Amino acid sequence: MNLNNIEKVCINLSTVRNNIPLIQCITNYVTINDCANILLAYGASPAMCEAYDEVFDFTKISSALYINVGTLTKEQEEAAVLASISAKVNNTTVVLDPVACGAIPRKAAVINRILELGRVDIIKGNIGEIKFLAGEASAVRGVDSLDSGEGALDACIRLAKKYNCIVASTGKEDFVTDGTRSAIIQNGTEMLTKITGAGCMLGALCGATAAYSEDKFIAAVTAILSMNLAGEEAYETVKVPGSFKVKLIDCIYTLTEEKLKKEGKIIWQ
Amino acid sequence: MNLNNIEKVCINLSTVRNNIPLIQCITNYVTINDCANILLAYGASPAMCEAYDEVFDFTKISSALYINVGTLTKEQEEAAVLASISAKVNNTTVVLDPVACGAIPRKAAVINRILELGRVDIIKGNIGEIKFLAGEASAVRGVDSLDSGEGALDACIRLAKKYNCIVASTGKEDFVTDGTRSAIIQNGTEMLTKITGAGCMLGALCGATAAYSEDKFIAAVTAILSMNLAGEEAYETVKVPGSFKVKLIDCIYTLTEEKLKKEGKIIWQ
Amino acid sequence: MNLNNIEKVCINLSTVRNNIPLIQCITNYVTINDCANILLAYGASPAMCEAYDEVFDFTKISSALYINVGTLTKEQEEAAVLASISAKVNNTTVVLDPVACGAIPRKAAVINRILELGRVDIIKGNIGEIKFLAGEASAVRGVDSLDSGEGALDACIRLAKKYNCIVASTGKEDFVTDGTRSAIIQNGTEMLTKITGAGCMLGALCGATAAYSEDKFIAAVTAILSMNLAGEEAYETVKVPGSFKVKLIDCIYTLTEEKLKKEGKIIWQ
Question: What are the φ/ψ torsions at residue A203 (nearest 5 degrees)?
Fold first, then answer.
């Protein structure tokens, strides 16, 4: 059977729901609740297991590990590195979210240790973060990217080749690449930038889609498209951020393969 | 006056609302906000006081202490043990939530220290956790129980006798026992498993109901029945998890004694 | 141009929205998500940057720093003091929220170090906390003030003169003073006390309004009035706390200068 890309994306979504992947998250406390709830709504099983004494063994039994370096405590920092080493040893998929790496030098140090000692399958960041990791200048401010997005795909491709992993970059358009194949995803809503944690939630979803999928490139596309379409649907009925966040979880829960197929605006390259 | 059990449950709810118990919580950061909000909605006063240097004195003035071992940091772990010792010395009621104790060995170690050095009035867990503590095999996966519930009440009774405390176990049916008296609570909705923190919130509510109640068995029943009925009512109007979580808090806030009496499906043994 | 106070308040709100101030928050994990979301909804850019190794440099680039001492970990405690020192050196505005300082001695110790070594532009607390810092007896219970509010403004004025800063105290009526000028704000809704974090969110908003404003007295009034009017509007449509919290964020997002001008009930002294 020869499937096209969007068909693979649809199958990826069903795979999550059929397998209920156990997603270990080491993530910031700002949006840890949102990450757990969106994973549940998507059909995955979240486990925010992050204690240094627990992570090595837990990563072994997890379907995927999501590491988000936003506001890591010292204990979380050590645990994140250790968990990524466990993932390498135990063949667990890892999604890395390099929050604010361009603005805060310590983030870059942690990320480098993870990339060096551990395993990373998908790097998912905003375009400012991705460009920074790719060694390029970019405008950042705190946790936000001010980058126009010019040259974004090129930066993603360079970074993907550098670390031999999938790179996903979010912004007005979202880019996913494995260094060879690329996807430009044109769905979404600006309202996702008016709530905290849309990026974190997306990173967690990448863990869910990548857990049981051999093709991590498709997995990253599935997660981004899911988030974007749920965001669009939520925004259709609510235009204010408190209610939008609630509705976003609802729409992730009710998301269908049919919707992915019908409404996804993806340029495959 | 000879009150039957459901009348005692109703009085328990009013006792919370009339006394506004101060509930100290040492709990995971995933659902700490939900625990605080549901306590407020229920009529209690939450205080997430967990710093090692603060807990001994604070437990002394608290009406009850809720300890949840999900994702404890090292500082929280030490604080939890110390607070439980203060509770023993100062006669403060303690509710223990043994999150993931079957899946993660370190959890069991913390729990044992609390049970050994401190005081525990109510152990509230899912059936997988309860069976583990009772020394039985059970299927767990991350923070979730995969147990069918067979033999659940027997395990609860054994555990209640072992530690001379109330044991409450949640699942399709919920069980509460003091080793002699038992209650099987048949209300609830599966939607409670689609949001993170229903178990944590329930544990916090157990603190509220047990704080001013001599009969901790009734207190655990009151908390579970409150959660289940609020869940049922929320699910009547919303079938999606983001909105359900919001509505759940609303329904806890508007819960009446009359509703407990009229809609509670409890088998008393 | 001679502006009256309420006109200054209105300009303060537009200043936030036009400048998108970067607000660094070192705050408790109970309501950290709410603080980030309300800042975004108000038009500011939150950054929960609190790691000891990160804060000194980050405070330098922040528009304002919000420090909330509720449930600080040891690392956060050290980071808060260091950040306040950086604020002094680098001329960054600081809002201090002295949560539970009357009930828990350790809080007072941290606050004193911040006041001694660092910089504080606005102290925002409930009346129990403010009276405690002003050296007066007051009834507190856990994180809540049980104070009647009698003599509140006098305590605020004394504290403002003691530390040469703005003092804002919340309760049935809210008071703001710089020691000379005072404002009594009579808007608000009791429902704000039925959710956790209304005080924390208000403190974060004070950071947003004070960031680009020379007149920190007006800034504190703007934040309080914004919160109170959003609360009133939310309460008009929802009377239950789960939904109220969601709606509160929505109403902060849609708040207009016109509303501030038309509905603000402020006694200027």
Answer: -60, -45
C61 CB neighbours in chain A (<8 A) are 103, 142
Mean pLDDT of chain A: 95
Q: How far separated are the first and last CA of chain A, in Å rounded?
A: 21
Residues of B in contact with C146 (CB under 8 A): none
* A124 labelled binding-site residue: yes
Query: Which chain A residues are closer than 8 Å to C245 by Cβ?
Result: 242
- Cβ atoms C231, C190 nearer than 8 A: no
Encode pLDDT of B211-236 as tens digits: 999 999 999 999 999 999 999 999 99
| Distance set, CA A173 to CA A170, A192, A265, B141 (Å) | 7, 13, 10, 37
Cα separations in angstroms, C49 against A52, A71, A103, B79, C80: 21, 6, 11, 25, 10
Chain B nearest-CA residue for C145: B45
Residues of chain B in contact with residue A254, where contact means CB-CB under 8 angstroms, are 240
Q: Residue C155: what residue type? A: A
> What is the tens place of the pLDDT at every residue in B76-109?
999 999 999 999 999 999 999 999 898 888 888 9
Among candidate residues A175, A204, A170, the one with its CA nearest the CA of residue A189: A170
Q: Where is the binding site for ATP, in residues of C?
A: 124, 170
CB nearest to C246's CB, from A30, A70, A243: A243
Residues in the annotated binding site of B for substrate: 48, 197
**Roughly what angle, to the nearest 10 degrees, separates helices C241-254 and C216-237?**
130
In the DSSP assignment, the letter for residue A94 is E
User: Which residue type occupies C105?
Assistant: P
Residue B141, strand partner residues: B144
Give dist(CA A217, CA A221) in Å, integer: 7
User: Do B75 and C72 lie within an 8 Å CB cutoff?
Assistant: no
Q: Closest approach of chain C CAs to the CA of A243, in angstroms?
A: 6
Residue A64 to residue B20: CA distance in whole angstroms: 43
Give the Cβ contact number of residue A187 at 10 Å. Answer: 20
Residues of B in contact with A52 (CB under 8 A): 74
Q: What does R_g of chain B's alpha carbons equal in angstroms?
A: 17
A197 annotated binding-site participant:
yes
Chains near C (3 or more Cβ pairs under 8 Å): A, B
| SS3 state at C125 | strand
* Residue C2 near residue C10 (C-beta atoms within 8 A): no
The answer to whether the Cβ–Cβ distance between A51 and B30 falls below 8 Å is no
State the average pLDDT over residues A12-33: 98
Per CATH, the architecture of C5-268 is what? 3-Layer(aba) Sandwich (3.40)
Q: Do C196 and B22 touch (CB under 8 A)?
A: no
Q: Tell me phi and psi for residue A177, to 5 degrees.
A: -150, 150
- To the nearest whole Å, the CA of C200 is away from the closest chain A CA by 14
Q: What is the pLDDT of residues C37-78, one digit of tens each?
A: 999 999 999 999 999 999 999 999 999 999 999 988 888 999
Residue C155 has pLDDT above 90, yes or no: yes
